[in-house]
Amino acid sequence: MPVRFTRIIASLTAALALAGCEEPSPPDTAERIRAIKPYIVTEPAGAVVRRYSGTVAASDTSALSFAVSGTVQTVTVKQGVRVTPGQVLATLDPKPFELDVQAAQSQLATAKATRDNKKVDLDRQRQLFTKGWVAKAALDQAIAAHDAAEGELNLARSRLGTAERDLANTRLTAPFGGVIASRNVDPFTETSRGTAVFQINSEGALEVDLSIPDSAVGQLTIGLPVTVEISTIAGCGCSGRITEIGTAAGSANAVDITASILDGPPEILPGMAAEVSVPFAGTNGKRGFLVPLVAIAPGDGTANGYVFKFDSASGAVRKTAITGVKGRDNFIEITDGVNAGDIIAAAGVSFLRDGQKVKLLGQ
């Protein structure tokens, strides 16, 4: 055998021997975080749906007015424009307020000089009284004069602060970003303190105000899914949720209800008429929610079935017992165990366990 080939065989043999002596790498014990397909519980089942008329409104709206009276100098926005927080909307003629500030500053300077003179006189009277050269009445008069001058100085400071605040209030700014819904002011006109000159609506966040008979309010809950339709906007079958339920009945024994619009198109504007479809409990007295059949794990002796709810705070799923009544297509109506807004695993539930860390598919 050639010497060169022999050396190659020997080298390979040594390398294999060394490889055999190496310790195997420890197995990766880190748990793989499974991605689950989420299903958000929203669609009511087995419910009686009733329709109520309402009006679209901005979730946050405000009437803006000047805090002082004066002559409008500039108006920088028109009705329908979008504004940003802190943007100047209008100003008053600042000259009268600037003069008030100057007068207050002068009064403050005079009051400070008077107080300083009275303090010097008080110190002198105290020295003389200590030596017994003046009567107690003279010292008392000096103390009273100094205290009065100190009070006038504090009053002058307050007047200056008020004048400076009034000057700052000649600029009217937007408290939040939104749309100018109405404008009731023009330049070179007089406006009074507290008179509404603008109506501003927050942009994007809309809701519907409606009234429901008090006999039906007991079946409503905060967060209940509803459907909002606006006849003037084609294809507007917007989803929403009840966010406020009134505590007292008004005219015609109706209670005020507010439903937020979750996915409305940009064409929706405050003031539009809307129809809100509200699901109520059916004849069985319960309101359920449709859940995909593939999201339900088999039951046992304790429960008829289970779903795995996703807890966003812990990033884990919780095995939750449910009660199903009936279904349609590939859905089951769940009357106990789930609520509107719950996120559950929509597939692969046989591979999940209670408390398992997961992530939502696509995240």
Describe the protein.
The protein is 26% helix and 38% strand. By secondary structure, the chain is α+β, with helices and mostly antiparallel strands. It folds into four domains: 36-46 and 286-360, Beta Barrel (conserved putative lor/sdh protein from methanococcus maripaludis s2 fold); 47-59 and 205-281, Elongation Factor Tu (Ef-tu), domain 3, CATH 2.40.30.170; 64-92 and 171-201, RNA polymerase II/Efflux pump adaptor protein, barrel-sandwich hybrid domain (OB fold (Dihydrolipoamide Acetyltransferase, E2P), Beta Barrel), CATH 2.40.50.100; 95-168, Helix hairpin bin (Helix Hairpins), CATH 1.10.287.470. Strands 3-18-22-21-20-19 form a six-stranded antiparallel β-sheet, with no helix packed on it. Helix 2 runs antiparallel to helix 3 (136-168). It is elongated. It starts with a helix and ends with a strand. 23% of the residues are buried.
Give structural attributes.
363 residues, alpha+beta, conserved putative lor/sdh protein from methanococcus maripaludis s2 fold, Elongation Factor Tu (Ef-tu), domain 3, OB fold (Dihydrolipoamide Acetyltransferase, E2P), 4 domains, six-stranded antiparallel β-sheet, six-stranded antiparallel β-barrel, 4 helices, 24 strands, elongated, disordered N terminus
Question: Which helices and strands occur, and which strands form pairs?
Answer:
Elements: H1 3-21, E1 34-36, E2 38-40, E3 44-45, E4 47-58, E5 61-65, E6 70-75, E7 82-83, E8 88-92, H2 95-131, H3 136-168, E9 171-173, E10 178-183, E11 190-191, E12 196-202, E13 206-213, H4 214-217, E14 225-229, E15 237-249, E16 254-261, E17 273-281, E18 288-292, E19 297-298, E20 305-311, E21 316-328, E22 331-336, E23 343-345, E24 358-360
Parallel strand pairs: 1-24
Antiparallel strand pairs: 2-23, 3-18, 4-13, 4-17, 5-12, 6-8, 6-11, 7-10, 8-9, 10-12, 13-16, 14-15, 14-17, 15-16, 18-22, 19-20, 20-21, 21-22
